[in-house]
Amino acid sequence: MTQTEQNPSVTDTPLVPLEKIVSLCKRRGFVFPNSEIYGGVAGIYDFGPLGVEFRNNIRRYWWWSMVQNHDNVVGIEGANITHPRVWEASGHVENFVDRLVDCKKCKQRFRIDHLPKENLEQNKCPACGGELTEPRTFNLLMETYLGVVEGERMKTYLRGEACQNIYLDYDNVLKSSRMQIPFGICQIGKAYRNEVTPRNFLFRMREFEQWDLQFFVHSSEMQQWFDYWKEFRFNWYKNIINHKDRLHFREHGSDELAHYAKQAFDIEYQTILGWQEWEGIHWRQDWDLSRHSEYSGQDLSYTDPNTKERYIPWIVETSGGVDRTFLNLLLDAYEEEPDPAGKEPRTVLRLHPMLAPVKVAVLPLQKNKEELITTAKSIYKTLQPLMVSQYDDISNIGRRYRRQDEIGTPYCVTVDFQTLDDQTVTVRERDHMTQVRVAIKELPLYLLERVSFR
Ligand code: GAP
Q1: Helix (H) or strand (E) holding 93
Q2: What pLDDT does 311 receive?
Q3: What is the number of alpha carbons within 13 Å of residue 130 lying toward its C-beta?
Q4: Is residue 155 scored above 50 in pLDDT?
Q5: 209 vs 88, 142, 230, 266, 324, CA distance in Å?
Q6: Is residue 367 within 8 Å of 388, Cβ to Cβ?
Q7: Sheet strand arrangement including 97-102
Q8: Mutate which of 208, 267, 284, 331 to test ligand 1's pocket (most atoms within 8 Å of Cβ)?
C-alpha cells in the first residue's frame, strides 16, 4: 500500500490517548525517561533500540527529500554552542521569554498565552479556581559557561533554535559550494529551551531536535518560494500519515508572529492534545542576515553574478521537530483492532513501511524442526545487511506476529514446510494481514521495493 491515499482501515479510528503511546514506548524500547534511576528530569528523554531506528529513518527521509532530491539545497551540521553574541543578534536574549503565573492554592504554573481569556481577566486558576500570582517573565535560553578559570569563564547559551548555525555558515557555504541564489541550506540538530512547563511527553521538551531549511532568495521571488516550500512541506507530512484529514494549515495572527516573522503558517496535526503545531513555515525576510551583519561587522550581502545587484537575501524558513514527528507518527499509527475470535485486541502500529524501525521479521513456523530454523536463519542473514531485520523463533507464530504488529514491522516472512519443497516463503503484510508466497531468491527485491524511500 502506498500511503499517499488514506488507509481505509484507519479513517474513523478515535484519537489515541497519550498514555497508550507512553506505555508502548517504554515497554517496547522506543523511549525511556532520562536518568530514570535518579527520578528522571522533566522534559528530557532517551531513545531506546527501536526508537533510535525509527528516529534515524525519520531523519534520513527528511534529508533525502530536502537535500538529496533538490539541486539547489545543501546541508550542514553546526555545533550546539555558539558565540554568545549570536543570541543577542537573533533577538533571543531580549525576546525569547515566557510570561508565567502560579496558582497560590494548587501551585500549578501556567503560561499567560495558554490561559483562557476569562481566567486571565478574573485572575483565576483554570484548574482549581484559586487566585493567581502576578505574572513573572522567564527567558528560555539555557545558559552554559566556557572556560575553567573562575572569573574568566564566558557565559554563552546552548542553542535555543538550531537554525542560527545556518546564518553563521551561510557565507562559507556560498563560497565553498558554488551555490547561487535562490538556494537553501538544511540542518538537523538539537535545540535547548528551558521550557517552564515541559509536558505531554515528546511534545514539549527541554532538549529536542529540529529540522530546518533556510532558503535564500531575492525579495522579488519571495512569494513564489514561500508558496513552493509551504506546499512541499505540507505534502511531505501528508505522505507519511494515515489520517490525512487531521492535517491542516493555520495562519498566524499579527499578535502571535515571532519577533522576526512577517508572515507565518503552522502545519498543524490533530491529536488527543487538540490541533497543535507540527512545523512552522516562516517569512523571515532579511532579518537574520541583516542582524548578523550588524552585530558581527561582517558584510553578509550577496552580489548577483549576472546583474551585479548587491543585496541582503530574504529567507523562507521551514522549521519542524524530529521528536514531535516521532510522537505524531506514533499517535497517527497506533490502533487497537478488535479480534473477531474474541481474544485480546490486536495492537498495531500502521507506520509507513519506509519509516518503520524494523522492516522485516523472519520466523520459522516451528522451533523444533531443524531444517526450518536453518533456512530461516539463512534468509535472515541475507536480509540483515539490506534492511533492519529481526529473527524470532520464541513462542507460537500468532504471538510472534502480534509482537511485530505492535512495533510496526510491515512484513513478516514465515518459513514453513512448503518452503523446504519449493523454496518459497509466506510474506504477511501488517495492515491487512494478507499473505502471499514469494520465492526466496526474489525476496530481497520484493521487500526493498516496498520499504525504500519514495
Ligand atoms: N527557527 C524557528 C523555530 O525554532 P519554533 O516554532 O520555535 O520555530 C520549530 O520551533 C519546531 O520545533 C516546532 O514546530 C516543533 O515541531 C519543534 N519544537 C519547538 N519547541 C519544541 C519543544 N519544546 N519540544 C519539542 N519540539 C519542539
Answers
A1: helix 92-95
A2: 98
A3: 14
A4: yes
A5: 22, 15, 21, 18, 9
A6: no
A7: 109-111, 97-102, 136-139
A8: 208
